[in-house]
Amino acid sequence: MLDDIKEQKILIVDDEQDNIKILAEILKGRYKLIGARSGNVALKCATAEETPDLILLDIMMPGMDGFEVIRRLKADAKTRDIPVIFVTAMGKEGHEAKGLELGAVDYITKPISPAVVNARVELQMELHHYRNHLERMVYERTEELAVINKRTRKEVAERKQAEEELRKHQDHLEEMVEKRTEELKAVNKKLIKEIDERKRMEAELRKAKDHLEKVFKRAETARKTAEAANKKIIESIRYAKMIQSSLLPNLENIKHHLPNSFFIWMPRDIVGGDIIFADATSGGFILAVIDCTGHGVPGAFMTMIASASLRRIIKDEGCHDPGEILKRLNIIIKTSLHQDTEYALSNDGLDAAICFLKPRETHMTSSFWLIFAGARVPLVYIQNGEVNIIKGDRQSIGYKQSDLDFAYANQPIKIERGMSFYMATDGFVDQLGGEKRRRFGTRRFRELLREHARTPFEKQRETLLQSFNEYKGKNERQDDVTVVGFGF
């Protein structure tokens, strides 16, 4: 009955190509797979001449999210019966219930387990296939019964006509009764056969019911197995957060060198792809903000590589020049991941901003200077109520396309009393929120800094967090959020 499962078609919907590749790798060889990176494309694929047998649907997508996609699928007679499984990084709290209310048959959270995906996809494919099979059998049987009913009505009409003829032709009554009796016996024999067939169908339906009960039991077992596996994964990631947190600089040590400062580090997931680096040297103080590729576990791996590389460059090699630090970091990241070769499997890297605070002494005076170098991350400073932007170079670090020979520019700034400096990753400004669910925006962020630059830095931190959370509202966090502020 299930021999044609290999011909079944699965539509994978996710705005991230890597997520589609991961699911395709898990399911390849057993199903016909197609991918869509937006809700509109997914709806076109679902309403094509050959509709999919199952849809794996992400929730968080730009433009049209997964909840809107399933609403439209269930509103269309052609697609309403296609089973949908949500595969998303959004937690279960509230979102799973919403997805199931909209008509989803299951809800899988990221990071995904191949065993869980295979088990749940196989279950839904089997249920979908079996339901189609039963509907086809019911349809065929209904058609057969309609023919029999029509034939029976015809026989009844003919019998009435015969009775009328019997009344008119008494001489032929016995002969006609005998003839019609034989005909009715044949009809009765056929009806008995039909009744036996119906009993056989009922027995098959009971067998199908027993099979479905076994399938549901297997599904429950799979669910419990998945929950246990997910619990182990979450515990491992939480331990990884402790390891990642240990890479962050000690805030008390930073406060010793920068008493007027604040730090915001909020990974989007349990672990994240942002990291802060600080180190006191004999010639000054180095402070860096790093934004690595991605977030979650992949981003956390990149932060460990970046943090270890910075320690090597600054502590072991004694390099304190921001531009040179970025250049060496570019070489280490790119060669460590073999992204300087044609056979590289990854294309990951990071953006960064580095400040070196040091005194400059002459025979007449002494002053403090800040030397900044950036890779796509700017330095913002407020002076006399005005916002000033020092842009970083438009060259990211470590990617395949990153130039190993690129020289990052140093930009010196003389530090004067009352100046406030800020470095931030793009997680703050890219957060969606407000009534129209738009980005917080660079202009709004810099105006917020300017407005509160003269308040104590701890108060500035509280204001930024409050503004961020109020704007975000009930929306999901888009990315890791890191902001560093300091002044004199």
Helix share, percent: 40-55%
> Largest sheet, if any?
5 strands, parallel
Give the domain tally: 3
- Give the name of the CATH superfamily of the largest domain: PPM-type phosphatase domain
Spatial gap, N to C terminus: 77 Å
**Cross-sheet strand order for the largest sheet:** 2-1-3-4-5
Q: Quickly count the helices.
A: 11
Overall strand count: 17
The quaternary structure here is single chain
- What is the H-and-E element order? EHEHEHEHEHHHEEEHHEEEEEEEEHHE
Q: What is the fold named in CATH at topology level of the largest domain?
A: Phosphatase 2c, domain 1
Beta fraction: 15-25%
Report on this model:
The strands form 4 sheets. The chain has a 5-stranded parallel β-sheet with strand order 2-1-3-4-5, with helices on both faces. The termini are far apart. It has helices at 17-27, 39-46, 66-75, 95-101, 114-168, 173-247, 251-257, 296-316, 322-336, 442-452, 457-472, and strands at 9-13, 32-36, 54-57, 84-88, 106-109, 261-266, 274-281, 284-292, 350-361, 366-375, 379-383, 386-390, 411-414, 420-424, 432-433, 438-439, 481-487. Mean pLDDT is 89; it is low at 1-5. It is elongated. With 488 residues, the chain is of the alpha+beta class. It has 3 domains: 3-112, Rossmann fold; 125-239; 248-487, 4-Layer Sandwich (Phosphatase 2c, domain 1). The chain has 11 helices and 17 strands.
Briefly characterize the structure.
By secondary structure, the protein is of the alpha+beta class. It has helices at 17-27, 39-46, 66-75, 95-101, 114-168, 173-247, 251-257, 296-316, 322-336, 442-452, 457-472, and strands at residues 9-13, 32-36, 54-57, 84-88, 106-109, 261-266, 274-281, 284-292, 350-361, 366-375, 379-383, 386-390, 411-414, 420-424, 432-433, 438-439, 481-487.
